[in-house]
Amino acid sequence: MTEITRDVVIVGAGAAGLTAAHELRKAGLSVAVLEARERVGGRLWTDVIDGAMLELGGQWVSPDQDALIDTVAELGLDTFSRYREGDSVYVGPDGTVSRFTGEMFPVSPETERTIDEITRRLDAMVAEIDPDRPFAHPKAAEWDTITWDAWLRQQTDDDEAVRNLAFATGSAMLTKPTHAFSLLQSLLMAASAGSYSHLVDADFILDKRVVGGLQQVPVLLAERLGDDVFLNRPVRTIEWSDAGVTAHADGLTVRARSAVLAVAPVLYNRISFVPPMPRLQHQMHQHISMGFVIKVHAVYETPFWREKGLSGTAFSPYEICHEAYDNTNHDDPRGTLVGFVSDRNADDMFRLSAEERKERILESLSHYYGPEAKDPVVYYESDWGTEEWTRGAYAASFDLGGLHRYGADVRTPLGPIQFACSDIAGAGYQHVDGAIRMGRLAARNILADGRV
Questions:
Q1: What distances in angstroms separate CA 261 from CA 16, 283, 367, 414, one per listed residue?
Q2: 204: exposed, middle or buried (Cβ count in 10 Å: 0-12, 13-18, 19+)
Q3: Among 55, 289, 389, 409, which residue has the least CB neighbours within 10 Å?
Q4: Measured between alpha carbons, how far is 20 from 442 in angstroms, rounded to an integer?
Q5: Residue 163: its pLDDT value, please?
Q6: Eight-state DSSP code of residue 394
Q7: What pLDDT is attached to residue 395?
Q8: Chain-centre distance of CA 227, in angstroms?
Q9: What's CA 356's distance to the chain center, in Å?
Q10: DSSP string spanning 347-411?
Q11: pLDDT of residue 103
Q12: Is residue 209 helix, strand or coil?
């Protein structure tokens, strides 16, 4: 067992942990970053599958994500815009396939008016939410004890309107059934992006990608830290007191004055704390869970949909793949589609054999793009639910009633231990931008608290 001493020990080499380490190192402190995986990046992972470069985890950059945009620029990385020329596709409740342009789905005039009216109502509510303090809103308890689905159905009996409004934060973002989380949790998701309208605007929220993949952000940050990043070192025990922290990882012990726990809350229970975490944390962490989504990558010899005048953007709350996009890599002659299968649909798909699942998913894509979608040259499913050190996707959120009950406590330090991850962010909540913001905040807190 090797033992080392540092000013700060950071658990987790994702965007949050590496950002915190980088900021602390710039301030003159010594750090050690302990990562359970054999790679850095956490939920960012760019890999080559059957000769195709695929972004298996997070990948997009939106215009409001200042922390991420600044980091990408500071690291010297280039970005490119998602392909969006041509028509989008919508599949209605009866299976009718419609092409359209703009943000509004091709629904009946009555349904369109309903969606527009409720969207305006939601934007007004979101404008009142501080994404760092959603629990402080006067109606937080009321909004946190009604499900997202139930609130929408109180507004209208138009089922198609409800499904289209609901999936923006349900299947698409929190990746949980809409009866499983609250209106307040949905409003937080929207507030983190600036408005509900931003969240449902694919051209905004999925604006750009990084040339070569977004995992380069943590990779380059780790390179700057050099030998202070330790891979294959899952932390098993953390001893803590006002005097400091001792982190026991496989084959390595780090003694430090402060620590940053930069992993998702669902992984805190993989670590034994000595003394144990207080009862508040024990209770709180049982009310936070990951969503679940299959990210489907289908690579074709050419982006055949473009020849049909399609942008590659497709939506339907009635399809197995509720949304899909042109995900072709920069300067790649081949075409790539990325589709998403969320919550209960994902559960159902994993009850099938791999071959039947692939067939069903590609059939769903073919409803948007035509029969050519059934014959990719590369097919791959990102299944973060099987990742031991992730356990779901995209991120963690509270169950019904949990946000107003515990939201004020998710970032509260545990003695010398700070918490940092996208799951507890305000702006950039559940995004890489939020992870970077939380990493910076943890570093500022350590520098301000006088322990090091």
A1: 9, 18, 44, 10
A2: middle
A3: 409
A4: 6
A5: 96
A6: S
A7: 95
A8: 28
A9: 27
A10: HHHTTS-HHHHHHHHHHHHHHHH-GGGG--SEEEEEEGGG-TTT-SSS-EEE-TTHHHHHGGGTT
A11: 83
A12: strand
pLDDT of residue 176: 97
Element (H, E) at 167: none
Please answer whether residues 395 and 424 qualify as being in contact, where contact means their C-beta atoms are separated by less than 8 angstroms. Answer: no
Q: Identify the pLDDT of residue 168.
A: 87
Look at residues 396, 395, 430, 410 and name the one whose alpha carbon lies nearest to residue 135.
410
Residue 170, pLDDT score: 86
Could you report how far apart the first and last alpha carbons of the chain are, in Å? Answer: 25
Domains of the chain, earliest start first: 2-43+215-277+414-449 (3.50.50.60), 46-84+206-211+292-386 (3.90.660.10), 109-196 (1.10.405.10)
Of 335, 418, 373, 317, nearest to 7 by C-alpha is 418
Amino acid at 360: R
DSSP helix/strand/coil, 274: strand
The structure tokens 């507004």 sit at 155
**Residue position matching structure tokens 């982006």:** 303
Residues of the chain with pLDDT under 70: none
- Confidence at residue 104, expressed as pLDDT on a 0 to 100 scale: 85
Residue in 321, 312, 298 with CA at minimum distance from that of residue 378:
298
Q: Are 398 and 32 in contact (CB under 8 A)?
A: no
What is the H or E stretch that residue 452 is in? Answer: none
CA torsion, ordered 92, 95, 97, 103, to nearest 10 deg? 20
Looking at this protein, which amino acid is placed at residue 17?
G
The tens digit of pLDDT for each residue in 166-180 reads: 988 988 999 999 999
Indicate the DSSP class of residue 182.
B
Nearest one of 423, 189, 186 to 284, comparing CA atoms: 423
d(CA 433, CA 239): 30
Identity of the amino acid at 81: S
Length reported for the chain: 452
Question: Residue 236 pairs with which residues in a beta bridge?
Answer: none
pLDDT for 102 = 87
Match 């350590």 to its residue by tokens: 446
- Cβ atoms of 425 and 5 closer than 8 Å: no
Contact 396, 287 (CB under 8 A): no
Does residue 155 contact residue 118 with C-beta atoms inside 8 Å?
yes
Instruction: Supply the pLDDT for residue 451.
Output: 81
